[in-house]
Amino acid sequence: MQSKKAFTLIEMIIVIVISSVLAIGMFKAFEALYIRSAKAKAITDLSLQSQIVLDEISRLLYNRIPNSVIGYDGSHEQSCIPITDILSDDNSTVLEWLSLDDEQLLADKYSGFVDMNASSKPDLKALEVDSDLNITNRNLIFAGSFDAGNENISTCKGAYGWHGNDSNLSHGIDSVDTDKITISDTSSDKAPEYIYEKYYLTNGAYAVARGADIDKDASCITDLKQKVDDNTLFLFYDYYPYNDETYCADKSGTQEGKVSILSYDVAFFGAVYENDIISLSLDINKSIRGSTSVHITKKKAVF
Question: Over 90: is that where the pLDDT of 76 sits?
C-alpha cells in the first residue's frame, strides 16, 4: 500500500478557508478587546480630567467677590446676566467673576475691616493695614453695598464695570498708609454713598469659556501655539472690568489679560445658582476609533 504524500487541491482550499475564518474571528476578538480597553482608559482619563477642571474652577470661584458673578453671552455685545438670574436654557455661556485679593489677605497685609467711627470719605481708618499693601489695579468694594440688598444697582449694569457698564460699587484706591486707606473718585458719581465696616479688595476678574463662544483668532489665543477648537475650555485672568477691560478673547470691548487652556473635548460648560449655591456642569466627549464616543458628565457645587 502506498502512503499519501501530498494534500489535494480541495484539502488545501478547505485549510485556507478555515484559517481565514479563524483569522477573522481572532481579529474581531482583538478589535473588541482594544475598543473595550480604549473605552475604559478614556472613561478613567476623562473622569479624572473633568474632576481636575471642576476643582480648579471651584477653587477660584470660592475666592470670589460676593455678588460679582455673571453669565455673559459672548456672541452678543454687552449681554450680561447676574448668576442669580441664569437659567439652564440661557445663552450666557461665559462665566465671569471678580477675585478676592486673598494672597495679601492671608499675608496679613489687610484685615478687611474699618473703624467706622474714625472714618470719613475719602480716608478710611482701616484696621491692620500695612503701608506696603499692593494697590496696583486693586479696587475696594464695601460688603454692605450688596449685603444690605441694594436693588438700585444691578450686578451687571452699574456695579462692577462688566462689559462697558459703570462701576459704582467698585472704588479705586489713591494711597495706603499704616491703618489708612484713601479712596479715589470721592468727588465723582463713583463716590461710595455709605461707608461700611467690612470691605473686600479685588485684584481683577476671571472668565471661563469654550472656544465656541470666544474670538479664537485673538492674539492671546494664537500666541498659545496650541491647536484649539470649539470644544477647548479656556481660563482668562488678569483683566480689570472696573478699568473698562474685558477678557482678551472677547468679541468686543477692550481686550486685556492672559489666558490658559483648562481642557479639551468639552462639549458643554455651564453654571446656575441654586439655593445659594453655584452649581457647575461639565460635559466631555472623546471619540474612540471603531466605536461610539465616550461621554462624561460631572457637576460640582461651590458654596
Answer: no
Residues in the chain: 303
What is the C-alpha separation between 254 and 256, in angstroms, rounded?
6
pLDDT of residue 3: 56
> Is residue 175 classed as helix, strand or coil in its secondary structure?
strand
* HSE value, Cβ hemisphere, 13 Å, CA-based, for 264: 7
- Domain ranges (residues) in the chain: 10-62+265-303, 63-264
- Which are the contacts of 142, defined by CB distance < 8 A and separation ≥ 6? 169, 171, 192, 194, 195, 196, 198, 199
Q: How far apart are CA 174 and CA 121, in angstroms?
A: 12
pTM comes to: 0.85
pLDDT, tens only, 240-250: 999 999 999 99
The SS3 assignment for 183 reads: strand
Q: How far apart are CA 68 and CA 158, in angstroms?
A: 12
